[in-house]
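note to self: the first set is below, dont mix up w the second
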Amino acid sequence: MIRKNILKTLGFASVMLFAASCSDFGTMNDNPNAILTPVTSALLTNALLDFDSPANNGSIRNGLYCQYFAETQYTETSLYAIPQIGWDGNYAGSLYDLQNIINNNTDPATKAYAALNGSNNNQIALARIVKAYRFLMLTDQWGDMPYSEALQLKTQPKYDTQQEIYNGLFKELKEAVAQFDGGAVPAGDIVHNGNLTRWKKFANSLRLIMAVRLSKVDPTTGKAQFLDALASNGGIIDANEDNAQVVYPGGTFNSPWYNTYNGRKDYGISDVIVNMLYATSDARVNAYGEPNASGTVVPMPYGLTRDDAVNYTNAHADWSKILNPTYRLGSATSFVLTAASVYLARAEAAALGWTTENVATMYSKGLEMSWKQWGVFDQSKFNTFMSNAGVQLGTTNDDILTKVRTQRYVSFFPDGANGWSEWRRTGVPALTPTPKATNSSKQIPRRFVYGSNEPNLNKTNYQAAVSKLTGGDTQDAKIWWDK
């Protein structure tokens, strides 16, 4: 069913692209039968197709920075070479589609036609939630960036501070949950198939993740937002059946991890994460990496030069790719936000004194959900894992926070975007930069530098944003919540 809907909606999208391509020739090429108003279900499907894309949300690069992954031949990124990665494609792609959904369901001239694909309010609310998620991924990579004036056809939008963006996203997510009505559900929803309760849980859960991210820079706001989200209408993700995930049909629409390895072999699971998993008897190791014929995950050493990486792979033909092959099929499931991550965020909030929830209960439940999510749960093995000295909660608050934060880092795998963010915020685990680093500081990057187009196309606003960064527009400058 999902594949059929994707094909149908992308067919509409192709029509729209063709109509747009003829717009520069006045009326001479006007087709009276062409679709001049976007089909909002097609826009939604297109935006959700790469909801979890490693390339789109930066998970590959971020996963290299937080040492989930290691490069096997072209090793520049894990040696911290300085890229200039523009965000242009994000604004022109999914974000623009989502804004178009909002615009067409708001404009009196188009809202009746748009309502053929679900009530106006429901479509707007869903688009606001997905748009908020997209902006969160972006601002956590760059910091200050266009937000309030973005997607408004302004050629030189101002850069909002990351604090302003976070405040805006908290507001968007809360209002969107309240905006859902009892009308028809949005067509084109390939994530939850129109289940608006699950979208409410996603929005509230995303607020929990965001709130804990403020634990050092603004704990007062973080606590208030966490408590508000925890008690919000619609609930939170607390069971794996409510996980936000994309189930790909395969064929024309393969999973992003399938595409990562389709004819390529650029990445392996790193020795950093694998050693952590084996040290604690963590059964997730066989889901996170590809076991060899003997059932062992053979990690790729992190941070090698190109020559050393090629020599290693030549000498270890059974090196392990990222994820068990089951999770790299064209028709595999990719996770966006899960019950495990939510329970572990609740464990940290409890350890911080933000809630009266039991830290140990939230912690154990989060890890149980993670093992079940990855299909490795066995009660006896899980008990052994939980009693491991590296996992078992100690008696001091520092030890408790370190253990909880370590498992948050582990459980976000392979989501490098969130893994890198959690490491930057907490310093857990204690990652060591590669000694082969090629950047001037030799340190793990803390942010993306702004794209090369910005100084030319939006010079005044770019310069204003750079002036707020300690040390300027570098990988070492810290974003707002990175304390």
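second set (the one i keep forgetting abt)
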Amino acid sequence: MQFTINRAVFIKAMNNVSRAISSRTSMPILTGVKLVLDNNGLTLTGSDTDISIETVIPVTDDQATLQVSEPGALVLPAAFFSNIVKRLPGETFTLSNTTGFQAKITSENSEFDINGQDANNYPHLPEIEVRNNLTLPAETLTEVIGQTVIAVSKQLSQPILTGVHFILAGGNLTAVATDRHRLAQRTVAFGDSDVSADIIVPGPSLNQLQAMLDEVETVDVRVAENQVIFQLGANTTFYSRLLEGNYPDASRLIPTEKRTTLTINARDLLQTIERAALLSHEGRSNVIQFTVSDEKSLISSNSPEVGRVEEQIFAAETAGDELTISFNPDYMREALKSFGDEQIQIGFKTALDPFTLVPTNNETNFIQLITPVRTY
């Protein structure tokens, strides 16, 4: 194989597929990037078996200025190859493979020879039968992922909870995540559609996908038996395996009764929580107290090893019973960040029951739930 290509365009494509490449894998060939060159363009593939990303640089891409001299295929060590290309001196570079599996990379006066592997030994991308197909604005999908993936579990002992549960039914997409200490749920409408699916996508897959969504306007989502495929524009395809099992009924965790409510700007409260967390993080328990009353509402933290902090918060409105509740500030901080600068209502039942955070307009059908910490 032999081609010449714009270096910046190639690096951008390489950065995308590298998101699926791990240095720790039981299959050494998966530490490499697969390059397939034909007369239509250059295809790059990266995979760690859980995630696979394929991106095509077509010969019709004016910015790429791809010149195909001889079609072929090769697997090159991803990290080493990427570092070489990023440091080449010229705007373009040429890669050629004339004998065996060794590649020659040249740019201006620089020349590298690196050893590759047979592309025929690289695992094939899954051939799947698509059952459902849905197109979403990339901005919407970015928002849904960002608001829910924060609540997935990091404990591999509960693998089903390490993913986000997506339910497509009745023209709505509902995404739910919980680690049993907190919960995040977001619902968006996608119009009249008979698309229906019930899938669990691993949190790490969604984190990598989210980082790629800035570059596209719409995402085509295709659901298969044990895979979900996200088509990002015309040239990039993101594959993720699905988690198997039954996701718990998260709706049962959401309390229906609110005995105390507080309405406040999410960003203002976030700044108060972050100040209080400076002290709680230095202590052993990492707990903050929230006291809500009509007279005065306070955020406080007391650490015998470090000291004490107390700050009055000025809510737009409080109603109901006086209440003091303890919680993990990190959970609260991540929940508040997901609302941005919105006005939210926090609803409490008792000091021992989970409390909810929702936008006051609730047009986004969005809820965050946090379980309090027992301090006695």
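remember for set 2: Helices lie at 7-18, 78-86, 138-148, 203-210, 266-280, 329-337.
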